[in-house]
Amino acid sequence: MQKPTSVKTWPEIEFWFEFASNYSYLSVMRIEELASLYQVKIKWCPFLLGPIFKSLGWNTSPFVLQKNKGDYVWQDMARQAKKYGLAWTQPTQFPRPSLLPMRVAAAYNDAPWIADFCRSVMQINFVQDRDIDSATVVQQVLTDLALDANLILRDMESDENKIKLRQQTELAITKKIFGAPSFIVEGQLFWGDDRLEDALHFARTVYERN
Amino acid sequence: MQKPTSVKTWPEIEFWFEFASNYSYLSVMRIEELASLYQVKIKWCPFLLGPIFKSLGWNTSPFVLQKNKGDYVWQDMARQAKKYGLAWTQPTQFPRPSLLPMRVAAAYNDAPWIADFCRSVMQINFVQDRDIDSATVVQQVLTDLALDANLILRDMESDENKIKLRQQTELAITKKIFGAPSFIVEGQLFWGDDRLEDALHFARTVYERN
């Protein structure tokens, strides 16, 4: 007799992302529906790109430092967003500071509302073209999710939560992550929104094999 | 009465590539079959990456300069090659000098044997893991294509042919190309083997619209 499939747990994908990263926007908007299709569980892993860029000797995004690549990225983003049916506005500020919403995401990365929270923050940055690193904005996002925004925001001031995001970033470096979005499945790294489907397919395939 | 379709010319994709570039290997191996599927004509545009990297202050490939990204690229290449059913060997020398075969490709970029020549050179670099920048190797490739190898190689010593590759590289810079492979369709730039299908789809779509 076969075990009922509901007893099985789903395989897991680590999803490493940054609210300041435009290609992370595509993955944040796409991952939940796709992961459900592949029957893969998402582990939300927010981390800061800044320290990783700094370790490479860069003081900002390579899309700012390399002019031709930067110009290209906005053409590519418009085409990719259209291909995936996603709204898109080229941000007037890039990369945007993202510390406060990143701290919330790190502190509540396994909350049932994490996907909704991340999509809302990303849409403010890359559709509404508005600042995301402000208490007012984050409070509104949390309130719209029917959460106790004041409680959560007060909680962000604790050392524990500040350290949590820093630790996530250090963990990303340990895992040899060099850009966002990145995906890790069974210790294998996949980089870029273009590899999301491959990473999910790999998670499902390895799981079926075992 | 409809015009017979044979009267129509096919839309064109400019394919900018480098024999030293591993992601160009994927596109060189894939493009002819795909372009035929989309009914798009390929304009083969070899160019040197070295001067473009130099203009960014780099003395070699970013895959060498950024260690984590470099380590990742070889994992990604193995997976991508497998996905596309292509043979793959991680080269023991990277990036390999490519000047002589690049000159041949630039001089004969509209020859009927250009696709075969490019695939052979790429396979020597990325499957056989052998040097490509030698008269012996290029001579063998040309001979295998039933061409007069001695005549072609002698021709590569002319100033005209040396200048041709240099001009191609300058043209690439004018077109704001910053990496390889790149594709240009109707003035729009697409970067990376991952965008090959998108570029071909765009060529076909714009053509149908007109």
Q: What key phrases describe this protein's structure?
A:
10% strand; 4 strands; alpha+beta; globular; homodimer; Glutaredoxin
Number of domains of chain A: 1
> What is the tally of beta strands of chain A?
4
Please give the most extensive interface between any two protein chains, plus how many residues each contributes. A-B, 22 and 22 residues
H/E series of chain A: EHEHHHHHHHHEEH
Percent of residues in beta strands of chain A: 5-15%
Radius of gyration of chain A in whole Å, from Cα?
A: 17 Å
> Could you state the CATH homologous superfamily of chain A?
Glutaredoxin
Task: Tell me the distance between the termini of chain A.
Answer: 18 Å
Q: So what's the CATH class of chain A?
A: Alpha Beta
Largest sheet of chain A: 4 strands, mixed
Put simply, the count of helices of chain A is 10
Q: Compute the average pLDDT of chain A.
A: 95
Strand order of the largest sheet of chain A: 2-1-3-4
Q: What would the CATH topology of chain A be?
A: Glutaredoxin
Per CATH, which architecture of chain A?
Answer: 3-Layer(aba) Sandwich
Unreliable stretches of chain A: none
Oligomer: homodimer
Structural class of chain A: alpha+beta
Shape of chain A: globular
Helix fraction of chain A, binned, reads 40-55%
